[in-house]
Amino acid sequence: MSWLDKLGLKKKEKLEKGVEKSREGLLNKISKSIAGKDKIDDATLDDLEDALITSDVGVKTTIEIIQRLEERVARDKFITQTELQQILQEETTALLKENRPEQPAEFDAEFTYKPHVVLIVGVNGVGKTTTIGKLAHLYKKAGKNVMVGAADTFRAAAVNQLVIWSERAGVPIVQQGQNADPASVAYDTVASAKSKGADVVLIDTAGRLHNKKSLMEELAKIKRVMGKVVDGAPHEILLVLDASTGQNAMQQAKAFTEVVDITGLVLTKLDGTAKGGIVLAVSNELSVPVKYIGLGEKIEDLQIFDRSEFVGALFGSN
User: Do 53 and 277 form a contact (C-beta atoms < 8 A)?
Assistant: First the structure.
């Protein structure tokens, strides 16, 4: 058994449990849309479209899925209710793979630069600090030396939270307290990581989006000072989104990607929401891949996003 399996990162059981609320809500809506019908016709597809949209799959992604189902129905002539669920899985997975064929489904802990610098961004309350703790744990289990930096200096609680998570993960933290210059914290973190031979650096940032210009300027400054220490830093910029906010998460993603060069997305709090369909919308409609999904509060409850497994868990049944 690999260390990934031991962590539960590739276990379907944890994924299925994590999206249980979303699956139950979606399947209930699908069942109502096809109840009492002995064939899949236009009216059924219209009802199915409503079921997907109200499950936060999003209008654009839903329409694309329905179009694929229409082609399948026309080609196969007759599709029963029993077959619909499997076909829905197949066509949704195919859609996501066609639009984003580069989506990684494995954990990558091999880096071009040392230290490998990861900047974590997102609005307050989405789970940035928790995600950093889980990522630190994940990289440490992969045998990497990890360091975190508390560059969200506008809230004392943010620094305190990161201290707690760094202790849970057993990794060192660089902090300067509340109201310190975020760029200064980022610089010191990367410089310290480089001098101590760390493999990975995870840096928290302030969760603000009300002023895009200020956000862009602040992150540009952070990137600039880190680049003076390690070439190409930051090497990843991960945007954390709260899946329980549904379409609001999509709007946040679009807003951030307009001003920041996001390289990957993290969808958190899937275990506590029935809005898991947003993962399909985000994965399909944005040019940035979903890299991780959060399925609980425990430090090991971060899973690598696998499109096929996620779609299977979302449209599957117990």
Answer: no
What pLDDT is recorded for position 1?
Answer: 47
> Helices 307-315 and 20-34 meet at what angle, rounded to 10?
60
- Tokens (6 digits) for 32: 């109502």
Hey, what are 219's tokens?
């992150």
Q: What is the pLDDT of residues 140-181, one digit of tens each?
A: 998 999 999 999 988 878 899 999 999 999 999 999 988 899
Q: What's the rounded Cα separation, in Å, for the pair 78 and 75?
A: 9
Say whether pLDDT at 84 is over 90: no
Q: How far apart are the first and last CA of the chain?
A: 26
pLDDT tens for residues 276-292? 899 999 988 888 889 99
Calculate helix-pair angle for 20-34, 42-53, nearest 10 degrees.
Answer: 160
Instruction: Compute the distance between CA of residue 195 and CA of residue 190 in angstroms, rounded to an integer.
Output: 9
Q: Extract the tokens encoding 146.
A: 């990890």
Residue linked to tokens 């703790």: 133
Q: What are phi and psi of 295, to 5 degrees?
A: -120, 20
Cβ atoms within 10 A of the Cβ of 148, count? 30
The residue to which tokens 């984003």 are assigned: 100
pTM: 0.89
